[in-house]
C-alpha cells in the first residue's frame, strides 16, 4: 500500500515533525507540502535536517497545491484554516487529519466561545472523530475526518481514561491538572513572548482564568463520567524546554480503588502508553522525539488523594505522532507503524 499524503502548513513545527516521522514510514508517500511564505522553495533547502529525504519536493502555495490527488491530507495549520479548507477535499473523498482545534469540540457554540471565529463548517464537526487513539480507535478506523487532540488534552486525558471508565473518582471533588509545556507548543510563528530572552531562565503559569484546552479536556472527561469534567481545574505553565509536556494530576478516588492497577490494566497491551512502576518519576526527556506517553502513580494516598504523573513530547504524541498513529488506524496498519523511535537522550 502507498498512501499519498499532503501536508498543509509544512514549514511549522508540527508540519516538519510530520515530515520527520513520515520519512521512513513504509507506506507513506508525501506528494504535496504547502507554505504560503516558502512557495517554490525546495524542502531540503529550507530544512537541512531533511536533506537526502525529500530532495524532489518543493513547497507549493496552498492555492496551487494538488491536495485533491492525496489519499490523506494533514492540516498542520493555525486554528481557523482547516474549517474552511478541508470541506472541499472531504467532498472529493480525501481523508483529513486536522492537527488544529477546528473539529475537536462537538458543541459548536461552545467552540465559538473559546476560539475567535464563527465556525464555517459545523456540519463536518458532527462527522469528525476525536482522534484520541487510546479511546476512540474503533471509530477512528472508519473516519474520513479526524480531529487530532491538543497536546494538553492528550497528556491529561490518557491517565484519566481508565479511572473515568470505572467511575471511581469521587463526585464533586476537584480533578487538578497542573501542567507544563515546552515552548515549541506555541508554534513557530514570531511572537515576543516566545523570544529566547523571555522564555529561557524563566517559568510562569498562563491561561489560569481559562485556557482553550479546558473545554476540550472537559468534553472527554464528561463523555466517560458525566459531570466529572466540570470538576477539572487546569493550569498550564510555560517551561524553558523546547519539547516536552508534563502533567501532575491530583485525583480523589473512592475507597478500594487503586489507580495504578486500573491504569496498568487498561494499557497493558499498548505500544504507546507506558505505565511505569508505582513511585517512579517520568521525565520529559524519556519521551523526547518518540510517540510515547509515560505515566506513573505515586504511592501513599492522603485522604484518598492520589498523584498521577504523565509526560509526552508535545510535538509527537501531543501532535504529529498521534496524527500518524491516527492515519495508521484509518488505513488498518499497525498503530505504531513507522513510529517506533527510541527517545533522544540527553
Ligand atoms: N506546536 C505544538 O506542540 C502543537 C500544535 N498543535 C496545533 O497544530 C497546528 C499547527 O501548529 P504549529 O505547527 O505549532 O504551528 P506553526 O505556527 O509552527 O506553523 C503553522 C503552519 O501553518 C502555515 N499557515 C499559517 N497560516 C496559514 C494559512 N492561512 N493557510 C495555510 N497555511 C497557513 C504556516 O506556513 P505559511 O505561513 O508559510 O503558510 C506554517 O507552516 C495548530 O493549530 C496548533 O494549535 C496541536 C498540538 C501541539
Ligand atoms: C506553550 C504553548 O503556548 N502552548 C499552546 C498549546 C497550543 C496547542 O497546541 O493547542 P491547539 O492545537 O488547541 O491550538 C498554548 O497554550 O496555546
From TrEMBL:
Biological classification of the source:
Bacteria, Pseudomonadati, Pseudomonadota, Betaproteobacteria, Neisseriales
Looking up PANTHER family in the UniProt record yields: N-ACETYL-GAMMA-GLUTAMYL-PHOSPHATE REDUCTASE, CHLOROPLASTIC-RELATED, N-ACETYL-GAMMA-GLUTAMYL-PHOSPHATE REDUCTASE, CHLOROPLASTIC-RELATED-RELATED
Q: Does the keyword Amino-acid biosynthesis apply?
A: yes
This enzyme's EC code(s)? 1.2.1.38
GO molecular function ontology, one term from the record: NAD binding
Where is this chain's protein located in or outside the cell?
Cytoplasm
Instruction: State which gene encodes it.
Output: argC
Metabolic or biological pathway, per its Swiss-Prot or TrEMBL entry: Amino-acid biosynthesis; L-arginine biosynthesis; N(2)-acetyl-L-ornithine from L-glutamate: step 3/4
Family statement drawn from the similarity comment of this UniProt entry:
Belongs to the NAGSA dehydrogenase family. Type 1 subfamily.
Q: Does the keyword Chaperone apply?
A: no
Q: Which UniProt keywords apply?
A: Amino-acid biosynthesis, Arginine biosynthesis, Cytoplasm, NADP, Oxidoreductase
Q: What protein name applies here?
A: N-acetyl-gamma-glutamyl-phosphate reductase
Q: Which organism is it from?
A: Snodgrassella alvi
UniProt cross-references to CDD domains, sorted A to Z: AGPR_1_C (cd23934), AGPR_1_N (cd17895)
Which GO CC annotations does the UniProt entry carry? cytoplasm
